[in-house]
Amino acid sequence: MANGSFAYKKPDSCAFVIFGVTGDLTHRLVMPSLYNLATSNLLPDRFCIVGITRKEASSEKLRDDLLEGLRKYATRHIDDEVAKRLLQCVTAIEADPAEPESFDRLKDKLEKLEAKRETGGNRLFYLATPPNAFAPIAEQLGRVGLLQEQDNGTPWHRLVVEKPFGTDLASAKALNDKLLKIMDEHQIYRIDHYLGKETVQNILVLRFANGMFEPIWNRHHIDHVQITVEETLGVGTRGSFYDATGALRDMVPNHLFQLLSLVAMEPPARFDAHTVRSEKAEVLSAIQIQSEAEALQNSVRGQYTAGQIGNTKLSDYSRTEDVKPDSATETFAALKLTIDNWRWAGVPFYLRTGKALNQKRTEVAIKFRQAPFAMFTCTPVDTLAENYLVIAIEPTQGITLQFNTKIPGPSIRTDGVEMKFNYKDYFQAEPATGYETLIYDCMIGDNILFQRADSVEAGWKAVQPFIDAWKKAGGDGLQTYTAGSEGPEAAAELLTRDGRSWRKPAQG
Ligand code: BG6
Predict the structure, then answer these.
(1) Domain 11-162 adopts which CATH fold?
(2) Does residue 395 have a cis peptide bond before it, meaning omega lies within 30 degrees of 0?
C-alpha cells in the first residue's frame, strides 16, 4: 500500500499481461486505473501492456478498442499525451488455454517483446476473465515456465486473480491447490476490490493509529456490530452469473468478510503483509461454524419482486433475463455470526447485503453498550439514544460518532447527536476507480491488501453451512421484498428477537 509518505516507490519495469483484455473489467477498471497511475507518474519507466486475445487481433485494433474504452470509463479528464504514452506499448498476442500450443507461442513472443522493451523479464499476469478460466490459464502459464521464478525472486512473475475465488469451500480449496502447485503463495494476488477503497483501508488506521479505541474495542464495551452493504441496482444484465451465485456468495465471504476481519482482527505486531494477513485469517477462522439448523435460524434470505427505486421501475427478479422463472436464488442475505475468541465472545456480528433496495449504503456500525444505569431519573435509560461508531464507506466516506448530549434548558433532557468526520472535508482526492492502489501494490510486490489462501478458505468455511442449508431448503423460507424497500421484514426480526434493531441513518 502506498504509505502516505509521498515518496512513492516507482514499480520495477514490467510487462502487464491481461487475459480478458476485451472484457468489461479491463475497460471499466483496469485501463482507467492504469491511466490514473500514469497521470500520477506511478507506472514503471519501462512498461508494456500485453493483451491476450483468443483469436488473432492486431495490436492497432486492440489499442483503438482500449482507447475507446478509456474515453468511456476514465474517472479523470483524458490527457491525449498521457493516453498515447500508455497505449503506445499495447501489443496483442493470441493464446487460448483450449489450445495449449498457443501458450508456447505466447512464451516466445512475450520473451522477444520483453527483450525489445527492456522490461527486465518482470511479468504481471492479470486474469480479468470468467472464473472458469483461472486454473486453465495458470496451468498453461506454469507449463511453459512463464511463472517460474528464480530463488532470489528476480525477475518476478505475479498472477492477479479476480473474484469470485471459488463458489464454495471445496472449489476454493481446489483452486488454491491448483495454483499453489504452479507457483508460490507470494506470487498470487487475489483481488477483492473492497480493499482498494480508502475508507476500508482506513479501518486499520482508525483502530491502530489511535490509542483511544483499542481499550473499548471488545465485548466489555461493544454490544454488537452491524455490517451493511445495500445496493439500489437490480441484477441488470448479469442474470446468468447472478442466478448461479446469489447475494451470499457474491458478497459475503469476500467483501463483507473483508470489513469484518478488519474490524475484528487483533492488533498486528507489525504492518507487513505476513503479520496483517495472518491476523485477518485468524479472526476469520474464529467465526463459529454453525450447524445447518443454526444457519437457518440465524439467517434471512430474500428475493426482490417488482417495484420502483427512484424513477427506475424494476420487474420481479425471477423475470430478469437469464434467470430461471422458478429461481430460489437470494438477492438479499442477512446473517448473524459470532466470533469465538476472548475479544468477541457473546458479541453478535449482524451482516446484511442486498440488491434493489431503497438506498445505496455501505457501512460498519459498532454499537456500544448503554450507560450502565439510569442516573438521570427524569430521563429513563430506555430513551437514551444509542451510541454508535459508524464507519461510512458508501455513498459518503467518513466516520460518525453518535452520542447523547444535554438539550439546553433548565432541566436535564438528553438527545442523540452526531460528531462527523467526512473525508471530503479534509482531503481532496482525484476521482479514482479504487483499483489504482491494488494494481500499484501488485507492481511493487506488496500483497498486504490481497487475500491469502487461508483467509479465502476460512471465509468459505464460515458461510458453507448457510449455502448448504439454503440449498436444501430451496424455495422454503425464501422471503420476498418489494424492489425499492428496506428488504424483507424478517431481516428486522433477526435483530428484534435479540432486543436489537438495524441502525437507521440520520435523515438529512
Ligand atoms: C461485486 C459484485 O463484487 O461488488 C456486485 O459482484 C456488486 O454484484 C459489487 O454490485 C458491489 O461493489 P460496490 O463497490 O459497489 O459496493
Answers:
(1) Rossmann fold (3.40.50)
(2) yes
Contact 174, 236 (CB under 8 A): no
Residue 157 falls in the annotated catalytic set? no
Q: What angle do CA 437, 440, 444 make, to 5 degrees?
A: 130
Residue 241 alpha carbon to ligand 1 centre in Å: 13
Closest atom of ligand 1 to 242 CA is 8
Cα 128 to averaged position of ligand 1 atoms, centre (Å): 15
Q: Whose CA is nearest to atom 9 of ligand 1?
A: 251
Answer whether 389's CB lies under 8 Å from 223's CB: no
Tell me the per-residue pLDDT of 240-279, one tens digit each, with 9 for 90 and over. Answer: 999 999 999 999 999 999 999 999 999 999 999 999 999 9
pLDDT digits (tens, 9 = 90+) for 148-203: 998 888 999 999 999 999 999 999 999 999 999 999 999 999 999 999 999 999 99
Residue nearest to atom 4 of ligand 1 (CA): 251
Does the structure show a pLDDT above 50 at 3?
no
pLDDT (tens digit per residue) in 325-334: 999 999 999 9
Burial 149-173 (b: 16+ CB within 10 A, else e): beeeeebbbbbbbbbbbbebbeebb
Query: Ligand 1 in contact with 250 (CB < 6 A)?
Result: yes
In the CATH scheme, what is the code of domain 195-430+453-496?
3.30.360.10
Distance from C-alpha of 449 to C-alpha of 192, rounded to nearest angstrom: 8
Q: What are phi and psi of 278, to 5 degrees?
A: -70, -40
Task: Name the pairing type of β-strands 388-394 and 361-368.
Answer: antiparallel
Test site for ligand 1: of 192, 248, 255, 360, most ligand atoms within 8 A of the Cβ:
255
Indicate if ligand 1 lies below 6 Å from the C-beta of 65.
no
Q: Which of 27, 157, 224, 255 is catalytic?
A: 255
- Can you read off the three cell numbers belonging to residue 279? 491476523
Q: What is the mean pLDDT of the chain?
A: 94
- Note whether 119 and 50 are within 8 A (CB): no
Written as nine digits, the cell of 323 is: 434467470
**Residue spans per domain, the chain:** 11-162, 195-430+453-496
- Which residue is closest in CA terms to ligand 1's atom 13? 194
Residue type, 284: L
User: Is residue 231 within 6 Å of ligand 1 at its C-beta?
Assistant: yes
pTM: 0.94
**Angle (nearest 5°) at CA 347 between 344 and 351:** 110
For residue 254, give the ligand 1 atom closest to its CA: 3
Which residues touch 263 (CB under 8 Å, ≥6 apart)?
A: 203, 207, 225, 227, 364, 366, 391
Q: Which amino acid is at 64?
A: D
Ligand 1 centre to CA of 379 (Å) is 43
Tell me how crowded residue 77 is: count the other CB atoms within 10 A of its CB.
7
CA torsion sign, 276 to 277 to 279 to 280?
positive
